[in-house]
Amino acid sequence: MYDYTERQRRLIGLGVFVILLIAWSFFLYLAGPTYLVEAIGVRNGYLLGFLVAAIGGVSTATSISYYSVVAALAAGGLNPYGLGIVMGTGVSIGDTIFFYLGKTGRHSLPHKLQYHVDRTLEWPYEQDLRLVHVQVFVWAAFMPLPNDILTVPAGISRFRPRDILPFLLAGNIVFTTILGLVVKHGFFT
Questions:
Q1: 26-40: b (≥16 Cβ within 10 Å) or e
Q2: pTM of this prediction?
């Protein structure tokens, strides 16, 4: 029996992920968004969107599936506003997980490192909390970057969930709605 090293396991995992991503993209290209929505139905389309958003939109590595499913479902005829609410809520669940991972991970940091993290993250505490709310909303609504870049440091810091998560949810809904509207109305080809 061959014993895989940690590096080999990561490379195999990355290879499987890339193959699945290519296969999913190829399937979406061949099937077409309209066929996909017709095959799974409108109600199931929203359920599929929610599940993909909650699972696929959680991290940097899997966010491509989130964007492609929003695009496919919107192009297939689902309401972009409904997609915004359903999938924005789903991706916010994943963001909440990363926020709490940051919160729990903070306690496992060595004290010296925790001191440096606190010093690095002092700037948000020096700002008016309303400015932080606006920044979180703008990040989630208009930056096509994964939210775990924001949620993990926010979790590690001393922010309370109510200071971050509602504004993240609102931003995720706006972002997903905008993406759905752009695809549905063909603002890019």
A1: eebeeeebeebbeee
A2: 0.73
